[in-house]
Amino acid sequence: MIDEMRMDQMLTCDDVMRQLWDYLDAELTPDRMAAVAAHLSVCTRCYPQYDFERAFLKAVRAAQRDHPVSPTLRVRVQEALRAEGFPGI
Question: Looking at residue 1, what DSSP letter applies?
Fold first, then answer.
């Protein structure tokens, strides 16, 4: 895997950290998904952050199932995000 990658295709820790949420949401290209996965498989610096963020997303999904958000709260949060400049919300 990582041995087969050319050196110019290997990602730095900064590259991986900037793309970690997109990786966890499977929103990267297949090649980039593979490159991030290869980096995480050998990097003792990045893997703990990946593991934490993966567990965080799992906990958020579980909380959403167990405690659905009221429509009123959802609207208030969306309005607050829009007011802070988050587009598409």
Answer: -
